[in-house]
Amino acid sequence: MELSTIKSLSNVESIVNGTSLITLYIPANNNLWLAVDHIDHETKTASNIKNKNVGKAVTIALKSVSYHLKNLQKIPTNGIVVCAGTFMQNIPITELSQCCF
């Protein structure tokens, strides 16, 4: 991740009501579509979260991860890390995502 992304996350931490961050590492030899299926399953499971705002934030982050993975043809030779999250600031939810190869 770029240093500017880390700094912006640090700045956001002090002014928001809540955050949801998902980090997914897929090694180079794994099946991309199994990871996509797993994230899609987790997206459906997120609807069971009792707090509706948290559930919405988690769902947005999971859909962002799924979007990034579905746009890949295959996993790069050194694997992939996908970080996606949301932060709530007086409830609009703002999305943040980063994809690193």
Features:
single chain; globular; three-stranded antiparallel β-sheet; alpha+beta; 101 residues; Translation, Eukaryotic Peptide Chain Release Factor Subunit 1, Chain A; 3 strands
Give a short overview.
Helices cover 44% and strands 26% of the residues. The chain contains three helices and three strands. It is globular and about 40 Å long.
Please, could you describe this protein's structure?
By secondary structure, the protein is an alpha+beta fold. The chain has one domain (17-100): eRF1 domain 1 (Translation, Eukaryotic Peptide Chain Release Factor Subunit 1, Chain A). Helices cover 44% and strands 26% of the residues. The protein has three helices and three strands, in the order αβααββ. The chain has helices at residues 3-13, 32-45, 52-70; strands at residues 18-26, 80-88, 93-100. A three-stranded antiparallel β-sheet has the order 1-2-3, sandwiched between helices. A hairpin with a 4-residue loop joins strand 2 and strand 3. It is globular, with a radius of gyration of 14 Å. The relative contact order is 0.24.
